[in-house]
Amino acid sequence: MKLFTITSAKNRVDRKTTLFWFRRDLRLNDNAGLYHALRENEDVLSVFIFDTVILNKLENKTDRRIGFILSALRTLKQQLEDAGSTLLVVHADPVDFFKSVRPHAVYTNHDYEPYARQRDENVTKTLSDKGSVLRTYKDQVIFEKSEVVKSDGEPYTVFTPYSRKWKASVNKSDLKGYAVTKYLHHLSKRDPLPFPTAKDIGFEETDNGIAERTIKLPVIRNYHRTRDFPAVQGTSRLSVHLRFGTVSIRRLVQIAYANNETWLNELIWREFYQMILWHFPRVEHGAFKPAYDRMRWRNDVHEFEAWCSGQTGYPIVDAGMRELNATGFMHNRVRMIVASFLTKHLLIDWRWGEAYFASKLLDYDLAANNGGWQWAAGSGCDTAPYFRVFNPALQAQKFDPELKYIRGWIPELDTPDYPKPMVAHAEARERALKQYAAALNN
Fold it and tell me: Is residue 73 marked as binding?
C-alpha cells in the first residue's frame, strides 16, 4: 500500500511516536532539529510532506525542483534505512496531515517565509488541540530574526553594516555542528516504507534536477578572482544545496572563514535577505522602498516574452535566459545583467521577472530572489540610487571577452537568424531615468 496520503499514513503514528519533519534540511548530519528530536526522544520517525498548498501552485509539471527533492529524499531514506529506520513520505496539506495524527511531539527547523510562518502557526494550534507540541530550531542560517540588529534594536537595512555586525557577533559555538550520529539509535525501528515517483505526486519525471553535492575547495579559494566570469567554473554551485539543506550552513561558514572572505560575504548576503524578509514580509509583494510602488511600468507582453525566451538581441542577456530555461541555473553576474535589462531597458515590473525566475530556478529561494530583483530595480535594500543601469554590451566585454559563454548558448550569433537589439542602450537608459524620476518625484 502506498503511504503518500493522510489516510494511509496516519496508522503509522501513535502517542509514543515523535515525528521529525524534514523541510529545508534534507540531510542527517549536522541537523539541529533532528539532533534535539533524537536526543530527547526514543522513538523518532522521520517524515517529509509534499505540501499540496505549494505544489498545487506549480503550473510546470516538469519542475526540476521536484526531481531534486526526490533525489535528495532517496539518499535520506537510504541513510535512515541503513540505521534501521525509514522515511514516511506524505502528499498532503501539512495542517490536514497533523489533524489526522496524534504524535507525542513534532520537531522541525525554522522556516522564515510568510507562508511557512502562517503554516507553522496553524500546525502549532492543531497539535496543541491534541495535547501535542511543535518544537522548532534554528538550522538554515547562523543568525536569524533579530539576532543581528542595530544598537537600538532596529533591523539593518543596508548590507555592509549588517555584515560587519554579523562578523563581530559570530563565535565558535555558532559554527559547531550537531552530533546527530550519536543518537541515531533513537530512530524509530521500522520496515522500509514505499517511496513515491514524480507521477505519484502529480509531476513528470525529469533527468536534470540533480546537482552535484561537492564542496570544491580550489574553486572557493579562487572565488574572488573567478566569480564574475560565467564561462569559467568559478562559483561553488552550492546554492541549491543551501536552499534545500542538503549541506550544512555551519560547515560552509567554517570553510569560508578558512578559505575566502568574498565567499563568506555571499553567505552573509543570504542571511541578510532572510532577515529582511522576516522583518519586512511586505517585500514579498511590494517594494522595500514604498516610493517605488508608484513606478509606472511599460509591461509590454511581447517584449517580456522575448526576454523570457532569450531573443532580445543582447547576447549576454539572451545567453543567460537560455541557460536558465535549459538548466534551471543562471550565473549570478548574469542574473544581475538580465534583471537590470528587464527593469531598466524594458521598464517591465520587477515582479514579472521575479516570478519567472521563481518558476525556473532550481535554487529558487524567496528571500534571495526577491532581494536580488529589488536590488536590480532600485527598490530594495541598496544605497545606490535608481540610475544604476548596466550596459549589457560592456558587461559582456568585461566578463565574457572571448564570447565563450555567449557562443555556448547562442550558436546562431553573427548570423541573420539572431535578432537585432530590441532597444538601443542609450535610449533605454534615458527613458528609464526619466520614468523613475517622474515616479519618485510625484
Answer: no
Determine the Cα–Cα distance for residues 292 and 373; give it in Å rounded to an integer: 13
Question: Residue 266, annotated ligand binder?
Answer: yes
The annotation status of 235 as a binding-site residue, yes or no, is yes
pLDDT digits (tens, 9 = 90+) for 205-247: 887 656 678 899 999 999 999 999 999 999 999 999 999 999 9
The 10 Å Cβ neighbour count of residue 442 is: 8
Question: Is the Cβ–Cβ distance between 315 and 364 less than 8 Å?
Answer: no
Give per-residue pLDDT as tens, 310-332. Answer: 999 999 999 999 999 999 999 99
Q: Which residues participate in catalysis according to the annotation?
A: 266, 269, 297, 332, 350, 373
The answer on 148 and 134 residing in a single domain is no
Whether 182 is in a domain gets the answer no
Residues 164 and 121 in one domain: no
Given 279, 302, 333, which residue is the final one in a domain? 279
Structural domains of the chain, count = 3
Among all chains, which residue has been given the C-alpha cell 544581475? 336
Model-level pTM? 0.95
Specify the length of the chain in residues: 442
Q: Is 295 exposed, middle or buried (0-12, 13-18, 19+ CB in 10 A)?
A: buried
**Which domain covers residue 33, as residue numbers?**
1-139
